[in-house]
Structures are given as C-alpha cells and as structure tokens.
Amino acid sequence: MRHDHLITSKQLSRADIETVLDRAAAIDADPAAVADRHAGTLLGLLFFEPSTRTKMSFETAIKRLGGDVVDMGSVESSSVKKGETLADTVRVIEGYADALVLRHPKQGSATMASEFVDVPLLNAGDGAGHHPTQTLLDLYTIRENAGLDDLTIGIMGDLKYGRTVHSLAYALTNFDARQHFVSPESLQLPREVVYDLHQSGSDAQVREHESLEEVLPSLDVLYVTRIQRERFPDENEYQQVAGEYRIDSETLAAANDDLTVMHPLPRVDEIAPEVDDTEYAAYFEQAHNGVSVRMALLDLLLSDGGDDDE
Predict the structure, then answer these.
(1) Where is the Aspartate/ornithine carbamoyltransferase carbamoyl-P binding domain positioned along the sequence (predicted)?
(2) Which one, 18, 153, 189, 199, has the greatest CB density within 10 A?
C-alpha cells in the first residue's frame, strides 16, 4: 500500500483493493503465518462515537498480528470533556502508538486529524462521510460470494447519510459493476456523490430507484442499510418509509437463487430475522470478515516491506 493514511475509498485503486483482499484471503487460509509479525506494535483507538464491530475487529486484528491496543476510552472519561481539540488528542496519542484508528461524528474529521500525525491514521467513520475499512470488508465479502466484475448490485436504505454506502459506491467504480440505488426520495444519494460517480466513467452503470421490486430479479448482491429514524421530523413518515424498505422471505421470492444479501449492521427491522437462516444471508459472514481484512490492511501499512507485494 502506497498510502500513509486511509481516509476515503476514493484513494484506492483497483490494484490497492486487490492487494488488501488478496492479503486477507492469504491470512484466512493460514492465520498462523502472521501470528507474531507485529509483536510489540501498538494500535491507538480513538472512538468518539459508539462502535461494536469496527472497534472490536480492529482490536482483534492487531492482537492476532501479535500487537496490542491503547484505547482512548469513552469521550466522557477523556480529556475531550475538558475541551481538548481533536488535533491535540491525536498528537498526544500518536506518541503512544504506531498507528491510529479514528471514528468521529464530524464529516472531514479524519482528513483534518491526518494532517497532525506522522503515523498511519485509518478513518473508521467520519459522520456521514466515509468508512473505507468497512468498504474493504464489504468488497471482500462480495468477491467471495459473487465476484467483483460483471456484478449487478442494489444498495438500499439511507443513501443520503450512510457513510458505508458512499465509500462502497466510490470503490465499486474500479470494477465492472452496475449499481442500482434504492431509497425514498428524501434519502437519495447526495448529488455530489452521484456527480462523482458519473465523472468516474461509470455513468451508464449508475441508476436510482424508489422501488426495489423493479430491480431485485436482476441483482447479484443486495446491500441493505438502516433507515435512520432520527432524520425524519415526522414519526408517521418514518414508519411508512421504513415498512416499505424491509426485506423478508416474501420479498426475496422474486430474487434470483444466487442473490447475496448484505448489511453493514447494526440492523433494526429492515431485514427480518427469518432471512438469517437462508442461503441469501451474508451479513454475519460480512462482519466476521472485518478481522481478516483489517489484519491485512494493518499488516500492509505497518510493514516496511508492504509495497513489495503490491
């Protein structure tokens, strides 16, 4: 990897992505081969927002590489409560760790923080901005289940505020992927993201819809995201939309037999529990893939010889 920091999936070329995914596959095949590769390495965790999968999988990843973590802990128990700026926080923790993982509620925070540190900084989510490490594990899951070329994917739910959606959409422009975005009009993909996708040369492969029904039979992958109740001024309006954008066995009756259903989690009620035991469901596999993919990413960023394999 030829990047000091990973802030957005827009940084990543197809070669970058394949390097990480191939390394993750090698780790999955033989995890013992990297068990002590980064002994003594410390990963600094700075999570200004709640996290389960991202935080725990990063911690698991560095420990399986032989390293350990230093954790800022909750905002309430840190110097942030005393008014410390993000710039000062990352500069302090940089002195304790060999790399940093940052999650922050403000869009653009990871870009700003990266300007103050010399160790690698990985964006674990910046508001409604980007979540590139989630994208890498999403791509790994897609590759394992459906392949990344000649792919038809539907991305459904909160496309306006969903950072996982924005990151994935940009990354998929590196591949032969037809992207169908399904959402209520109020939660459509931001216009600047749509513009960027068209500018990428993939304009013939980006389509927007309000109904899943018209595209479901053609999909190889359906990527479902939570519709965020807190964004709606009227509860009745939310309930109407949320009920429409829900996947259950009846919905999937129109899907092709090889459809892969994904979700970055946490889910609320947008995928019925009855889907969990079907062959469509890949969202728990997706979450588990976060460990090997983040192991691969850390291995590449922390190894002096990481570029040699690219």
Answers:
(1) 5-144
(2) 153
